[in-house]
Design a protein that fits this description.
9 helices; alpha+beta; Band7/mec-2_domain; about 425 residues; membrane
Length: about 425
Protein backbone atom coordinates (compact mmCIF):
# COMPACT_ATOMS: atom_id res chain seq x y z
CA UNK A 1 0.00 0.00 0.00
CA UNK A 2 1.36 3.44 -0.96
CA UNK A 3 2.19 5.64 2.00
CA UNK A 4 2.22 9.00 0.14
CA UNK A 5 -0.25 11.06 -1.78
CA UNK A 6 0.19 11.49 -5.49
CA UNK A 7 1.69 14.85 -6.25
CA UNK A 8 0.53 17.16 -9.02
CA UNK A 9 2.63 20.00 -10.33
CA UNK A 10 3.22 22.10 -13.37
CA UNK A 11 6.58 22.22 -15.12
CA UNK A 12 8.52 24.69 -17.24
CA UNK A 13 10.15 23.10 -20.27
CA UNK A 14 10.95 23.54 -23.90
CA UNK A 15 8.64 22.44 -26.69
CA UNK A 16 10.60 19.26 -27.26
CA UNK A 17 10.12 18.12 -23.66
CA UNK A 18 6.38 18.74 -23.38
CA UNK A 19 5.34 15.30 -24.66
CA UNK A 20 7.59 13.45 -22.21
CA UNK A 21 6.50 15.54 -19.21
CA UNK A 22 2.79 15.16 -19.95
CA UNK A 23 3.02 11.39 -20.42
CA UNK A 24 5.66 10.40 -17.86
CA UNK A 25 5.66 13.16 -15.27
CA UNK A 26 8.70 14.54 -13.51
CA UNK A 27 10.44 12.87 -10.56
CA UNK A 28 7.40 10.76 -9.70
CA UNK A 29 5.01 13.68 -9.85
CA UNK A 30 2.08 14.14 -12.19
CA UNK A 31 2.45 16.97 -14.68
CA UNK A 32 -0.89 17.80 -16.38
CA UNK A 33 0.23 21.36 -17.26
CA UNK A 34 3.48 22.38 -18.93
CA UNK A 35 4.53 26.00 -19.37
CA UNK A 36 6.53 26.12 -22.62
CA UNK A 37 9.63 28.26 -22.86
CA UNK A 38 9.17 31.07 -25.36
CA UNK A 39 11.88 30.58 -27.95
CA UNK A 40 10.99 33.75 -29.76
CA UNK A 41 12.70 37.07 -29.04
CA UNK A 42 13.65 40.31 -30.73
CA UNK A 43 16.96 39.11 -32.17
CA UNK A 44 15.34 39.14 -35.62
CA UNK A 45 15.29 42.95 -35.39
CA UNK A 46 19.10 43.16 -35.89
CA UNK A 47 19.18 41.43 -39.32
CA UNK A 48 16.10 43.38 -40.28
CA UNK A 49 17.80 46.72 -39.43
CA UNK A 50 20.96 45.56 -41.24
CA UNK A 51 18.88 44.70 -44.28
CA UNK A 52 17.32 48.15 -44.17
CA UNK A 53 20.76 49.70 -43.91
CA UNK A 54 22.04 47.67 -46.87
CA UNK A 55 18.95 48.59 -48.83
CA UNK A 56 19.65 52.30 -48.14
CA UNK A 57 23.27 51.83 -49.15
CA UNK A 58 22.20 50.16 -52.38
CA UNK A 59 19.96 53.09 -53.14
CA UNK A 60 22.57 55.73 -52.39
CA UNK A 61 25.67 53.96 -53.78
CA UNK A 62 26.53 53.16 -57.35
CA UNK A 63 28.17 50.35 -59.16
CA UNK A 64 29.36 47.18 -57.54
CA UNK A 65 28.75 48.47 -54.03
CA UNK A 66 25.12 49.10 -54.83
CA UNK A 67 24.64 45.59 -56.25
CA UNK A 68 26.40 43.93 -53.32
CA UNK A 69 24.38 45.98 -50.82
CA UNK A 70 21.12 45.11 -52.60
CA UNK A 71 21.99 41.40 -52.65
CA UNK A 72 22.94 41.49 -48.97
CA UNK A 73 19.68 43.28 -48.10
CA UNK A 74 17.64 40.64 -49.99
CA UNK A 75 19.48 37.79 -48.29
CA UNK A 76 19.02 39.34 -44.87
CA UNK A 77 15.32 39.95 -45.55
CA UNK A 78 14.87 36.34 -46.62
CA UNK A 79 16.78 35.09 -43.58
CA UNK A 80 14.66 37.31 -41.33
CA UNK A 81 11.47 36.02 -42.99
CA UNK A 82 12.51 32.38 -42.55
CA UNK A 83 13.50 33.12 -38.97
CA UNK A 84 10.11 34.69 -38.25
CA UNK A 85 8.28 31.81 -40.02
CA UNK A 86 10.14 29.17 -38.04
CA UNK A 87 9.64 30.96 -34.73
CA UNK A 88 5.91 31.50 -35.45
CA UNK A 89 5.20 27.77 -35.81
CA UNK A 90 3.42 26.29 -32.77
CA UNK A 91 2.62 22.56 -32.75
CA UNK A 92 0.06 21.36 -30.18
CA UNK A 93 0.20 17.63 -29.53
CA UNK A 94 -2.89 15.45 -29.98
CA UNK A 95 -4.84 15.16 -26.72
CA UNK A 96 -3.63 18.49 -25.36
CA UNK A 97 -4.89 22.06 -25.52
CA UNK A 98 -2.80 25.21 -25.72
CA UNK A 99 -3.72 28.34 -23.73
CA UNK A 100 -3.20 31.39 -25.97
CA UNK A 101 -2.50 34.80 -24.41
CA UNK A 102 -1.91 38.28 -25.74
CA UNK A 103 -0.01 40.80 -23.66
CA UNK A 104 -0.45 38.37 -20.74
CA UNK A 105 -4.27 38.09 -21.03
CA UNK A 106 -5.80 34.75 -21.98
CA UNK A 107 -7.70 35.15 -25.25
CA UNK A 108 -8.48 31.57 -26.21
CA UNK A 109 -7.26 28.05 -26.78
CA UNK A 110 -5.33 26.25 -29.48
CA UNK A 111 -6.54 22.86 -30.68
CA UNK A 112 -4.13 20.02 -31.54
CA UNK A 113 -2.16 20.63 -34.73
CA UNK A 114 0.07 23.32 -36.24
CA UNK A 115 -0.63 27.00 -35.60
CA UNK A 116 1.17 30.22 -36.52
CA UNK A 117 1.65 33.05 -34.05
CA UNK A 118 3.17 35.84 -36.13
CA UNK A 119 2.97 38.56 -33.55
CA UNK A 120 5.62 38.41 -30.85
CA UNK A 121 3.18 39.43 -28.13
CA UNK A 122 0.99 36.38 -28.93
CA UNK A 123 2.27 33.40 -27.02
CA UNK A 124 1.25 30.04 -25.53
CA UNK A 125 1.08 30.35 -21.76
CA UNK A 126 0.51 26.62 -21.07
CA UNK A 127 -0.14 23.28 -22.68
CA UNK A 128 -2.80 21.30 -20.76
CA UNK A 129 -3.45 17.57 -21.06
CA UNK A 130 -7.23 17.41 -21.66
CA UNK A 131 -7.67 13.83 -22.92
CA UNK A 132 -5.77 11.67 -20.43
CA UNK A 133 -7.51 10.38 -17.32
CA UNK A 134 -4.92 11.22 -14.68
CA UNK A 135 -4.67 8.66 -11.81
CA UNK A 136 -4.47 9.97 -8.27
CA UNK A 137 -3.79 7.95 -5.11
CA UNK A 138 -4.65 9.25 -1.64
CA UNK A 139 -3.82 7.05 1.42
CA UNK A 140 -5.68 8.59 4.36
CA UNK A 141 -4.43 7.53 7.80
CA UNK A 142 -6.12 7.52 11.22
CA UNK A 143 -9.70 7.55 9.96
CA UNK A 144 -12.06 7.06 12.92
CA UNK A 145 -15.05 4.73 12.45
CA UNK A 146 -18.51 5.05 13.97
CA UNK A 147 -17.09 3.70 17.30
CA UNK A 148 -14.18 6.21 17.19
CA UNK A 149 -11.72 3.40 16.45
CA UNK A 150 -9.03 4.88 14.20
CA UNK A 151 -8.34 2.79 11.15
CA UNK A 152 -4.71 2.42 10.21
CA UNK A 153 -5.19 3.64 6.66
CA UNK A 154 -7.70 3.83 3.83
CA UNK A 155 -6.36 4.06 0.32
CA UNK A 156 -8.51 6.03 -2.09
CA UNK A 157 -7.91 5.94 -5.83
CA UNK A 158 -9.49 8.24 -8.40
CA UNK A 159 -9.10 9.36 -11.99
CA UNK A 160 -9.73 12.89 -13.14
CA UNK A 161 -9.63 14.73 -16.42
CA UNK A 162 -9.29 18.42 -17.16
CA UNK A 163 -12.33 19.39 -19.20
CA UNK A 164 -11.91 23.19 -19.11
CA UNK A 165 -8.21 24.05 -19.44
CA UNK A 166 -8.79 27.82 -19.31
CA UNK A 167 -10.67 27.59 -15.99
CA UNK A 168 -8.06 25.21 -14.61
CA UNK A 169 -5.10 27.42 -15.48
CA UNK A 170 -6.81 30.71 -14.65
CA UNK A 171 -8.45 29.79 -11.30
CA UNK A 172 -6.16 27.31 -9.57
CA UNK A 173 -3.19 25.85 -11.43
CA UNK A 174 -1.70 22.39 -11.01
CA UNK A 175 0.21 22.96 -7.75
CA UNK A 176 -2.72 24.53 -5.92
CA UNK A 177 -5.07 21.89 -7.30
CA UNK A 178 -2.89 19.24 -5.67
CA UNK A 179 -3.58 20.69 -2.22
CA UNK A 180 -7.30 21.23 -2.90
CA UNK A 181 -7.76 17.70 -4.23
CA UNK A 182 -5.86 16.16 -1.31
CA UNK A 183 -8.03 18.04 1.20
CA UNK A 184 -11.28 17.15 -0.57
CA UNK A 185 -10.35 13.45 -0.75
CA UNK A 186 -9.42 13.32 2.94
CA UNK A 187 -12.73 14.93 3.92
CA UNK A 188 -14.71 12.51 1.76
CA UNK A 189 -12.83 9.45 3.11
CA UNK A 190 -13.24 10.49 6.75
CA UNK A 191 -16.96 11.10 6.26
CA UNK A 192 -17.35 7.66 4.69
CA UNK A 193 -15.35 5.99 7.49
CA UNK A 194 -17.66 7.64 10.06
CA UNK A 195 -20.62 5.86 8.48
CA UNK A 196 -19.37 2.30 9.08
CA UNK A 197 -18.52 0.26 12.15
CA UNK A 198 -15.06 -1.16 12.75
CA UNK A 199 -16.36 -4.67 12.17
CA UNK A 200 -17.65 -3.67 8.74
CA UNK A 201 -14.64 -1.54 7.81
CA UNK A 202 -13.36 -4.15 5.38
CA UNK A 203 -16.62 -3.73 3.46
CA UNK A 204 -15.31 -0.33 2.32
CA UNK A 205 -12.83 -2.16 0.11
CA UNK A 206 -14.33 -2.27 -3.37
CA UNK A 207 -17.58 -0.67 -2.20
CA UNK A 208 -19.68 1.72 -4.26
CA UNK A 209 -18.28 5.26 -3.97
CA UNK A 210 -20.56 6.91 -6.51
CA UNK A 211 -21.83 9.40 -3.94
CA UNK A 212 -18.26 10.40 -3.05
CA UNK A 213 -17.46 10.83 -6.74
CA UNK A 214 -20.49 13.08 -7.23
CA UNK A 215 -19.57 15.14 -4.16
CA UNK A 216 -16.01 15.61 -5.44
CA UNK A 217 -17.32 16.60 -8.87
CA UNK A 218 -19.56 19.25 -7.30
CA UNK A 219 -16.66 20.56 -5.25
CA UNK A 220 -14.04 20.56 -8.01
CA UNK A 221 -16.23 21.32 -11.00
CA UNK A 222 -15.59 25.07 -10.84
CA UNK A 223 -11.91 24.37 -11.49
CA UNK A 224 -12.67 22.71 -14.85
CA UNK A 225 -11.97 19.20 -13.55
CA UNK A 226 -14.24 16.14 -13.68
CA UNK A 227 -13.73 12.95 -11.66
CA UNK A 228 -14.24 10.02 -14.05
CA UNK A 229 -13.78 7.12 -11.63
CA UNK A 230 -13.07 6.30 -8.02
CA UNK A 231 -12.76 3.32 -5.70
CA UNK A 232 -11.27 2.17 -2.39
CA UNK A 233 -8.70 -0.55 -3.20
CA UNK A 234 -7.45 -1.23 0.34
CA UNK A 235 -8.40 -0.75 4.00
CA UNK A 236 -5.98 -1.42 6.88
CA UNK A 237 -7.33 -2.05 10.36
CA UNK A 238 -5.49 -1.34 13.66
CA UNK A 239 -2.94 -4.00 14.68
CA UNK A 240 -4.89 -5.12 17.78
CA UNK A 241 -8.11 -5.34 15.89
CA UNK A 242 -6.25 -7.09 13.08
CA UNK A 243 -5.21 -9.85 15.53
CA UNK A 244 -8.78 -10.12 16.75
CA UNK A 245 -9.93 -10.28 13.17
CA UNK A 246 -7.33 -12.97 12.42
CA UNK A 247 -8.77 -15.05 15.27
CA UNK A 248 -12.24 -14.51 13.94
CA UNK A 249 -11.09 -15.45 10.46
CA UNK A 250 -9.51 -18.62 11.83
CA UNK A 251 -12.77 -19.53 13.56
CA UNK A 252 -14.65 -18.62 10.41
CA UNK A 253 -12.35 -20.87 8.36
CA UNK A 254 -12.89 -23.74 10.79
CA UNK A 255 -16.61 -23.14 10.61
CA UNK A 256 -16.39 -23.05 6.84
CA UNK A 257 -14.44 -26.33 6.84
CA UNK A 258 -17.03 -27.89 9.15
CA UNK A 259 -19.80 -26.58 6.94
CA UNK A 260 -18.09 -27.99 3.87
CA UNK A 261 -17.71 -31.36 5.59
CA UNK A 262 -21.33 -31.27 6.68
CA UNK A 263 -22.30 -30.22 3.17
CA UNK A 264 -20.43 -33.23 1.74
CA UNK A 265 -22.14 -35.53 4.26
CA UNK A 266 -25.49 -34.01 3.46
CA UNK A 267 -24.86 -34.38 -0.25
CA UNK A 268 -23.89 -38.04 0.21
CA UNK A 269 -27.10 -38.63 2.13
CA UNK A 270 -29.06 -36.78 -0.46
CA UNK A 271 -27.40 -38.81 -3.22
CA UNK A 272 -28.23 -42.03 -1.35
CA UNK A 273 -31.82 -40.96 -0.93
CA UNK A 274 -31.99 -39.94 -4.57
CA UNK A 275 -30.65 -43.36 -5.60
CA UNK A 276 -33.26 -45.06 -3.43
CA UNK A 277 -35.91 -42.81 -4.89
CA UNK A 278 -34.75 -43.68 -8.40
CA UNK A 279 -34.77 -47.38 -7.52
CA UNK A 280 -38.27 -47.02 -6.09
CA UNK A 281 -39.33 -45.15 -9.20
CA UNK A 282 -37.98 -47.95 -11.41
CA UNK A 283 -39.79 -50.56 -9.28
CA UNK A 284 -42.94 -48.49 -9.46
CA UNK A 285 -42.56 -48.10 -13.21
CA UNK A 286 -42.10 -51.88 -13.58
CA UNK A 287 -45.22 -52.49 -11.52
CA UNK A 288 -47.07 -49.90 -13.52
CA UNK A 289 -46.03 -51.72 -16.68
CA UNK A 290 -47.26 -55.01 -15.22
CA UNK A 291 -50.53 -53.42 -14.13
CA UNK A 292 -50.95 -51.89 -17.56
CA UNK A 293 -50.25 -55.28 -19.18
CA UNK A 294 -52.79 -56.95 -16.88
CA UNK A 295 -55.22 -54.16 -17.58
CA UNK A 296 -54.74 -54.59 -21.33
CA UNK A 297 -55.22 -58.37 -20.99
CA UNK A 298 -58.36 -57.83 -18.94
CA UNK A 299 -59.62 -55.37 -21.49
CA UNK A 300 -58.98 -57.90 -24.26
CA UNK A 301 -60.79 -60.63 -22.28
CA UNK A 302 -63.68 -58.33 -21.54
CA UNK A 303 -63.78 -57.26 -25.17
CA UNK A 304 -63.77 -60.88 -26.31
CA UNK A 305 -66.47 -61.77 -23.75
CA UNK A 306 -68.54 -58.79 -24.81
CA UNK A 307 -68.08 -59.80 -28.43
CA UNK A 308 -69.21 -63.36 -27.65
CA UNK A 309 -72.18 -62.10 -25.65
CA UNK A 310 -73.02 -59.69 -28.40
CA UNK A 311 -72.83 -62.55 -30.91
CA UNK A 312 -75.05 -64.71 -28.69
CA UNK A 313 -77.45 -61.82 -28.19
CA UNK A 314 -77.48 -61.28 -31.94
CA UNK A 315 -78.24 -64.98 -32.49
CA UNK A 316 -81.02 -64.94 -29.87
CA UNK A 317 -82.38 -61.78 -31.37
CA UNK A 318 -82.38 -63.34 -34.79
CA UNK A 319 -84.14 -66.46 -33.43
CA UNK A 320 -86.69 -64.29 -31.64
CA UNK A 321 -87.19 -62.27 -34.77
CA UNK A 322 -87.54 -65.44 -36.84
CA UNK A 323 -89.99 -66.94 -34.32
CA UNK A 324 -91.87 -63.67 -34.17
CA UNK A 325 -91.98 -63.46 -37.93
CA UNK A 326 -93.27 -67.06 -38.06
CA UNK A 327 -95.90 -66.37 -35.41
CA UNK A 328 -96.76 -63.13 -37.15
CA UNK A 329 -97.09 -64.98 -40.43
CA UNK A 330 -99.24 -67.67 -38.75
CA UNK A 331 -101.38 -65.03 -37.10
CA UNK A 332 -101.70 -63.20 -40.39
CA UNK A 333 -102.66 -66.48 -42.10
CA UNK A 334 -105.18 -67.29 -39.36
CA UNK A 335 -106.58 -63.79 -39.58
CA UNK A 336 -106.85 -64.20 -43.31
CA UNK A 337 -108.60 -67.54 -42.82
CA UNK A 338 -110.95 -66.05 -40.26
CA UNK A 339 -111.57 -63.13 -42.53
CA UNK A 340 -112.28 -65.47 -45.39
CA UNK A 341 -114.47 -67.60 -43.13
CA UNK A 342 -116.31 -64.50 -42.02
CA UNK A 343 -116.76 -63.55 -45.62
CA UNK A 344 -118.00 -67.05 -46.34
CA UNK A 345 -120.41 -66.87 -43.39
CA UNK A 346 -121.57 -63.52 -44.56
CA UNK A 347 -122.14 -64.88 -48.07
CA UNK A 348 -123.99 -67.95 -46.77
CA UNK A 349 -126.11 -66.08 -44.24
CA UNK A 350 -129.37 -66.64 -46.11
CA UNK A 351 -128.60 -70.30 -46.51
CA UNK A 352 -127.85 -70.55 -42.81
CA UNK A 353 -131.00 -68.70 -41.85
CA UNK A 354 -133.02 -71.06 -44.06
CA UNK A 355 -131.24 -74.08 -42.59
CA UNK A 356 -131.84 -72.72 -39.10
CA UNK A 357 -135.54 -72.20 -39.81
CA UNK A 358 -135.83 -75.70 -41.23
CA UNK A 359 -134.10 -77.18 -38.21
CA UNK A 360 -136.33 -75.20 -35.94
CA UNK A 361 -139.34 -76.73 -37.71
CA UNK A 362 -137.85 -80.19 -37.37
CA UNK A 363 -137.17 -79.65 -33.71
CA UNK A 364 -140.73 -78.34 -33.19
CA UNK A 365 -142.13 -81.35 -34.94
CA UNK A 366 -140.11 -83.72 -32.81
CA UNK A 367 -141.05 -81.83 -29.65
CA UNK A 368 -144.63 -82.00 -30.66
CA UNK A 369 -144.34 -85.69 -31.16
CA UNK A 370 -142.61 -86.23 -27.84
CA UNK A 371 -144.92 -83.95 -25.92
CA UNK A 372 -147.14 -85.66 -23.33
CA UNK A 373 -150.58 -86.52 -24.55
CA UNK A 374 -153.47 -85.80 -22.38
CA UNK A 375 -155.35 -88.82 -21.10
CA UNK A 376 -159.00 -88.34 -20.75
CA UNK A 377 -160.66 -90.73 -18.53
CA UNK A 378 -164.26 -90.57 -19.14
CA UNK A 379 -166.31 -91.69 -16.22
CA UNK A 380 -169.55 -90.41 -17.42
CA UNK A 381 -170.53 -93.97 -18.21
CA UNK A 382 -170.56 -94.57 -14.64
CA UNK A 383 -167.77 -97.14 -14.49
CA UNK A 384 -166.16 -96.29 -11.28
CA UNK A 385 -165.46 -99.68 -10.16
CA UNK A 386 -162.31 -100.63 -8.38
CA UNK A 387 -161.10 -102.69 -11.33
CA UNK A 388 -161.08 -99.68 -13.69
CA UNK A 389 -159.32 -97.57 -11.18
CA UNK A 390 -156.62 -100.28 -10.75
CA UNK A 391 -156.07 -100.53 -14.49
CA UNK A 392 -155.80 -96.77 -14.79
CA UNK A 393 -153.19 -96.68 -12.09
CA UNK A 394 -151.09 -99.27 -13.89
CA UNK A 395 -151.33 -97.56 -17.26
CA UNK A 396 -150.44 -93.97 -16.20
CA UNK A 397 -146.72 -94.61 -15.28
CA UNK A 398 -146.13 -96.20 -18.63
CA UNK A 399 -147.51 -93.22 -20.39
CA UNK A 400 -145.30 -90.89 -18.34
CA UNK A 401 -142.15 -92.91 -19.08
CA UNK A 402 -142.86 -92.93 -22.81
CA UNK A 403 -143.24 -89.15 -22.76
CA UNK A 404 -139.92 -88.71 -21.03
CA UNK A 405 -138.14 -90.93 -23.56
CA UNK A 406 -139.52 -88.94 -26.45
CA UNK A 407 -138.37 -85.65 -24.88
CA UNK A 408 -134.88 -87.04 -24.37
CA UNK A 409 -134.60 -88.03 -27.99
CA UNK A 410 -135.78 -84.62 -29.12
CA UNK A 411 -133.25 -82.90 -26.85
CA UNK A 412 -130.46 -85.12 -28.15
CA UNK A 413 -131.15 -84.21 -31.73
CA UNK A 414 -131.50 -80.55 -30.93
CA UNK A 415 -128.10 -80.34 -29.18
CA UNK A 416 -125.98 -81.41 -32.20
CA UNK A 417 -127.91 -79.09 -34.40
CA UNK A 418 -127.18 -76.17 -32.10
CA UNK A 419 -123.45 -77.01 -32.00
Amino acid sequence: MSKEFSRIKEALAGWSEIRQLLRGGEQGRLVPVVIPKDRRGFAWVAPLLLAVYLAGTAVLADGVISGAAAAGAVVLLLATGVWLWRSAIIEIEEGTTGIRSRWGAIVGTLSPGRHYLWLPWDRVDAVVDTSTEIPYTAPVTSCPTAEDVPLKAIEFFLKFRIVDPVAFVRTIGASNFDMVLSSAVQDAIRQRARQVTTERAHDLRGSDVGDMQEALNRRLGRYGVRITGANIPDVQLPDQYQQHLATREKVAKEMAAYEREWELTRRRRIDTLLMEIERAKKTRDARIVEVKAAHNTARKDVARMLEEQETEAQRVRWEIEARGRAQLTAAENEAKALRRLAEAYRDNRAVLQYELARRRLDVGAKLAEAAPQPVVVRTSGGDTSALSTLLLAQYLPRLTEAGRTARAQVNGEHAPASG
